[in-house]
């Protein structure tokens, strides 16, 4: 389905629900994350992401990118020492759940409205939920840079 030049994908959800995601939204978020976190030495093996792939969903599945984005708004929101971070090995599911829970709770602490979204939704890479959380965190990141003085 195309509307005004946008590419919209429909995704079948639970209980016969249907969700839509925009390709342009995914691309924009991946590009912004690449620019914003590209200099982070820990993320050097993950970034830059290919914005034209589904890599955004894969890279956000362990919660580390979201936690680092939240810390750009409030540097004390997530104590990065509490994150399970490995550069080379994939995290266990339990470690990924811990990270995602930390990121979700930190996102709530900076004002993101997160309802009925859990760690397993991020780990499973459910596009509409990942993009929903990403949008709120990115919006908070951009708004914190505005100064009225």
UniProtKB/TrEMBL annotation:
Q: Which GO terms describe its cellular component?
A: actin filament; actin filament bundle; cytoplasm
Molecular function (Gene Ontology), one example: actin filament binding
Q: Where is the Calponin-homology (CH) domain?
A: 23-142
Q: Which SMART domains match?
A: CH
In Swiss-Prot or TrEMBL terms, this protein is called Calponin-homology (CH) domain-containing protein
InterPro entries according to UniProt? CH_dom, CH_dom_sf, Fimbrin/Plastin
Q: Which superkingdom?
A: Eukaryota
Give the species: Florenciella parvula
Listed A to Z, the keywords are: Actin-binding, Repeat
A Pfam family (short name) is CH
**GO BP annotations, alphabetical order:** actin filament bundle assembly; actin filament network formation
């Amino acid at each position: 389905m195309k509307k005004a030049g946008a590419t919209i994908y429909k995704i079948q959800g639970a209980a016969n629900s249907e969700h839509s995601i925009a390709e342009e939204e995914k691309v924009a978020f991946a590009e912004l994350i690449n620019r914003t976190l590209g200099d982070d030495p820990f993320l050097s093996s993950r970034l830059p992401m290919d914005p034209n792939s589904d890599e955004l969903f894969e890279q956000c599945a362990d919660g580390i990118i979201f936690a680092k984005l939240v810390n750009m708004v409030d540097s004390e929101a997530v104590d990065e020492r509490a994150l399970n971070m490995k550069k080379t090995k994939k995290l266990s599911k339990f470690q990924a759940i811990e990270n995602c829970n930390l990121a979700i709770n930190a996102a709530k602490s900076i004002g993101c409205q997160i309802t009925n979204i859990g760690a397993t939704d991020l780990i499973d890479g459910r596009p509409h939920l990942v993009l929903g959380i990403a949008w709120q965190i990115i919006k908070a990141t951009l708004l914190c840079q505005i100064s009225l003085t």
